[in-house]
Design a protein that fits this description.
With 568 residues, this protein is of the alpha/beta class. Helices cover 28% and strands 17% of the residues. The chain binds 1-O-alpha-D-glucopyranosyl-D-fructose (TEU) and calcium ion.
């Protein structure tokens, strides 16, 4: 069977490890590399082929490592370069590849470059960052995602100037317009690629190019052109693709086996192929935020829509993004990560009677769509949101700064805490649940963030032994995907687009085809298999439940039931 544009990274399953919360080995309550190394057999048992590791570099941890003070040094909290070498060797010896996080939209304000840059206006590193001399008056407003005033310009008395920071004021943005900065970044990428890593996940990369004529963005323009969200303005930098092409020419083409996945906030599907079309010589894959916008109300910050998300809207979005890459490029698919709440609590149902089947259904969806799936550590167990009730329990600056921002505006903080129980990032950053012991087997003492008390019954040890667990279902489905190539390369076709509870689609590769039927509801749902398929024979090859009510083409689906049929 000839597969056009066959690539290892289209066939693999990605497993994201958030090292701070994965496994602590030295009892300081913070996950680390020796802890991760001690769990490599577990990761191998999942059948995944690529690990994405969140940042482990030297960092004052203002934003959990996304504020880097030295790109070529491992944070002592996580371990040493020797630990890193052992991790890489351990993964490779198990046939698993590793990509590192490349955080170059900004550095830490404790990075040597910024320490120099802020010393004087004629310091050789001055133009490594974006500065606005105060005598020119206040710079045109730019929004910061992590700032108590939402202001992305920080005044620095040392040189009577403002510097730009889209994220916190301890994350000054690098000036990519400066060729020296780009050269430094390419050098650093080669440092890690020469160590044998298999590629990078590129952090907030759609933001790196700035329009340095610093145009005013009026409230009207922000609303009409950028959906009242600065991320849609920040992703329109004039030289973004010129820099990504240069990165490809200067670095990536020299490492043909390395893969790149860009995090591209603020883009629409019409822009996607500009990043990943092979002829553009830029990047391999991207992940977008459009799916993550579903289910939120227009009011408040990350306030859930009381009616939840609409399945027809969900199906329409993932079908449109499938079509973007149907002929060219290749997509990724995810439902959660370290910036989002737990996929079970967001897209499934974490109530006791539904959490196991809905975890399995979401796993089925991610492993049967035509895109490389990215799983976040713990979602294979069906871990849920911790839903803190007290602001004191939060550790994430996005939540803490937004709390102060709203407090300063006398907003309803109780409502904010309620909303954060649904949308906060810390919901997915609680310690990995290895077993039912006091600290879930993650650490022996006070973890940096509280353990979810449901670890008493939701943990790896219990699920290993339970053939019906989400964990063993995950392992089964990863293997099933490898055994049925149409689940990787097959064309995707959706049916019954308007059905409010059922998501049905086929994957077809030459003569082989598979039908996937998913009940995204708490209800028993009578469902007729689409007429166009009635001439086919149906062989059930996967069911996340132990029974199926079926008369010919008439099915009665159990809540959150997920079925896969081989079509003959
Ligand atoms: O995230 C970029 C980004 O756009 C996120 O801030 C996102 O909008 C937000 O978290 C959603 O709530 C990357 C990293 O993934 C994130 O962890 C970092 O905080 C951020 O960049 C800054 O490096
Ligand atoms: Ca530790």
């Amino acid at each position: 069977m000839h597969i056009k544009d066959k690539e290892w990274w289209k066939e693999t399953v990605i497993y994201q490890v958030y090292p701070r919360s994965f496994k602590d080995s030295n009892g300081d309550g913070i996950g680390d590399l020796p802890g991760l190394i001690s769990k490599l057999d577990y990761i191998q048992s999942l059948g995944v082929g690529l690990v994405w590791l969140n940042p482990i570099y030297a960092s004052p941890n203002d934003d959990n490592g996304y504020d880097i003070s030295n790109y070529e040094a491992i944070s002592p909290t996580f371990g040493t370069i020797a630990d890193f070498n052992a991790l890489l060797a351990g993964l490779h010896s198990r046939g698993i590849k590793l990509i590192m996080d490349l955080v170059v939209n900004h550095t830490s304000d404790e990075h040597a470059w910024f320490i120099e840059s802020r010393k004087s206006r004629d310091n050789p590193y001055r133009d490594y960052y974006h500065w606005w001399p105060a005598e020119k008056g206040k710079p045109p407003h730019r929004y910061s995602f992590f700032d108590k005033k939402g202001d992305a310009w920080q005044y620095d008395p040392a040189t009577d100037s403002y510097y730009l920071h889209y994220f916190s004021n301890k994350q000054p943005d690098l000036n990519w317009e400066n060729p020296k900065v780009r050269k430094e970044v390419y050098q650093m990428m080669k440092f890690w690629l020469d160590k044998g890593i298999d590629g990078f996940r590129l952090d907030a990369i759609s933001y790196i190019s700035k329009d340095t004529t610093w145009p005013v963005v009026s409230k009207k323009e922000l609303a009409e052109k950028y959906k009242n969200d600065f991320s849609y303005f920040y992703s329109k930098g004039p030289k973004l693709h010129e820099y990504l092409h240069e990165m490809n020419r200067e670095v990536l083409q020299h490492y043909p086996n390395a893969v790149t996945i860009s995090e591209t906030p603020g883009i629409e599907k019409e822009e996607a192929l500009q990043f990943v079309h092979v002829d553009r010589q830029e990047l391999h894959m991207l992940y977008h935020f459009k799916g993550m916008e579903l289910g939120y109300s227009k009011e408040g910050f990350k306030r859930p829509d009381p009616n939840g998300y609409s399945l027809p809207a969900f199906k329409k979005l993932y079908t449109e993004w499938n079509d973007v890459f149907a002929k060219e490029g290749w997509g990724t698919i995810y439902l959660g990560n370290h910036d989002q709440p737990r996929m079970l609590s967001r897209w499934g149902n974490d109530a006791p009677e539904f959490r196991v089947p809905s975890s399995k259904l979401l796993i089925t969806f991610l492993l049967t769509m035509r895109a490389t799936p990215i799983f976040y550590n713990g979602d294979e167990l069906g871990m849920a949101n911790i839903k803190f009730e007290d602001i004191q329990d939060y550790r994430d600056i996005e939540t803490l700064y937004m709390y102060h921002f709203l407090q300063a505006q006398n907003e309803d903080l109780e409502q904010f805490i309620k909303d954060q129980q649904f949308g906060a990032r810390d919901n997915s950053r609680t310690p990995f649940q290895w077993d039912a012991t006091a600290c879930a087997g993650f650490t022996t003492c006070d973890p940096w963030i509280k353990v979810n008390t449901d670890h008493a019954f939701i943990n790896k040890e219990a699920q290993d032994a339970d053939g019906n667990s989400p964990l063993n279902y995950f392992r089964h489905l990863v293997q099933l995907r490898k055994d049925h190539l149409e689940l990787i390369y097959g064309d995707y076709k959706m049916y019954d687009a308007e059905h409010k509870q059922i998501y049905t689609y086929t994957r077809t590769l030459e003569k082989t085809a598979t039908l996937i039927i998913l009940n995204f509801s708490n209800d028993l749902v009578p469902y007729t298999i689409p007429k166009e398929l009635h001439k086919k024979q149906f062989q059930l090859i996967s069911n996340n439940e132990t029974s199926l009510q079926q008369e010919e083409h008439e099915l009665t689906l159990l809540p959150w039931q997920a079925l896969i049929f081989k079509l003959k």
